[in-house]
Amino acid sequence: MELWKWDDATGDFWSRLAKALQQSNISVTWAEQLDIRLASVHTTGKLSWAAATRYIREFKMRIERIGGSRLDTDPEVWGLDQTTWELMWAGEAAMRKSIPALRQAGYQSISDLPSIQQSYREKALVVIPPAMRLCATSNGEQRVQVLIPVVQGLSQKQRQLMQQYFELVDWQGLKLPSAERRQRDSLKSFLNLKMFIKE
């Protein structure tokens, strides 16, 4: 960083931060310890509660950010029916209340829950409205249904709301590679090709 001028570090936040730290003579000594700690963390590769429902919550936050609300906004403006509209709020609240009971029963993530798989020859279990789809390449046809089991501490109403909320999750979209991942994979294959040509 010492060789860079301040104006050269405008590419991104991290370059600017590194240059600011260097100019302030602040040494980052915790980075190596952080790398060791992160390397020791065991990742299960399971789909978390938050990751599965993130897009629904972000969609709801976008509505709220521009002044929309559960009660004052017409759901048809967003391409949703009244049931789906109400479920965005009620389902999230039910999920927040239900997760502790599910974890207590041994369901640590969504991947631990039972599910039904529908073949492509049969009609889709649920079709998600276009506004609720995770990505443009998802057609919204859901052939996976995650089931919320009966567990102690989880009322029938909460269980039913959470089940309906999970039917809004674009399971197909979650399985499709994101544009960022495709870009990273193509860069990785390009670099591998470059190394192969050098040899």
Short overview:
By secondary structure, the protein is mainly alpha-helical. The protein has helices spanning 13-23, 31-40, 49-65, 82-104, 156-166, 171-175, 179-198, and strands at 115-117, 126-127, 141-142, 144-146. It has 7 helices and 4 strands.
SSE arrangement:
Elements: H1 13-23, H2 31-40, H3 49-65, H4 82-104, E1 115-117, E2 126-127, E3 141-142, E4 144-146, H5 156-166, H6 171-175, H7 179-198
Antiparallel strand pairs: 1-4, 2-3
Number of domains: 2
Largest sheet descriptor: 2 strands, antiparallel
From the N-terminal CA to the C-terminal CA, the straight-line distance is: 32 Å
Count of helices? 7
Main structural class = mainly alpha
* Percentage of residues in DSSP E strands: 5-15%
Low-confidence spans: pLDDT under 50, at least 5 residues?
Answer: 38-43, 176-182
Mean pLDDT: 75
Shape: elongated
Keywords, separated by commas or semicolons:
mainly alpha; 2 domains; two-stranded antiparallel sheet
Structure, explained:
With 199 residues, this protein is mainly alpha-helical. The protein has two domains: 41 residues, no CATH class; 127 residues, no CATH class. Helix content is 49%, strand content 5%. It contains seven helices and four strands; from the N terminus they run H-H-H-H-E-E-E-E-H-H-H. The strands form two sheets. It has a two-stranded antiparallel ribbon. Strands 2-3 form a two-stranded antiparallel sheet.
